[in-house]
């Protein structure tokens, strides 16, 4: 009969707790790696848990060249793993924003998330450029642009352009402000951003930050 069986028959514990500290540590480390491998995670070394350079970069500010964006167009880039919309609004698009105020939940963005400089009707540093996270504030879906006006848009005669979330129907105007009686409770989030020049936009950092 083996030593382990003899210990068991004498009422002594055979678990790792009865082993010396060094063997307990070894067993604990081995069990931990085994659990990770069992979950399909290829991480046999502690160093693998450290954030990669790419992961660090995901939170860094991102520059965008505005010169490639024509009036009335929208582009999407990634910042912190989220889609960021950049819309170059025409003067007509900006002028139409005030027409929506009476039908909005938070027209002045008093209860929505944005930097202080992005409150108000246009929600922008420069009215021409609108920057926001392309993530619905209801359940995190990504709305679709609906820039055509009126009946041509399929959104109704009084539609002045904006966004429609295809998942649950929330509607937002061209400043990311949500309409009343929609599932989304607040306006689209505006990230910190600033201008490095007339054509260079920096997303992820305010101009007041050092």
List its traits:
210 residues; alpha+beta; Rieske Iron-sulfur Protein; 3-stranded antiparallel beta sheet; 18% strand; disordered N terminus
Structural commentary:
The chain has 210 residues and is of the alpha+beta class. It has two domains: 3-49, no CATH class; 56-203, Rieske [2Fe-2S] iron-sulphur domain (Rieske Iron-sulfur Protein). Helices cover 17% and strands 18% of the residues. The protein contains four helices and nine strands; from the N terminus they run αααβββαββββββ. It has helices at residues 3-9, 21-38, 53-57, 91-96, and strands spanning 62-65, 74-79, 82-88, 129-133, 144-146, 162-164, 171-173, 193-195, 200-203. The strands form three sheets. Strands 1-9-8 form a three-stranded antiparallel sheet, with no helix packed on it. It has a three-stranded antiparallel sheet with strand order 2-3-4, with no helix packed on it. It has a three-stranded antiparallel sheet with strand order 5-6-7, with no helix packed on it. The longest helix is centred in the first third of the chain and has 18 residues, at 21-38. The chain starts with a helix and ends in a 7-residue tail after the last strand.
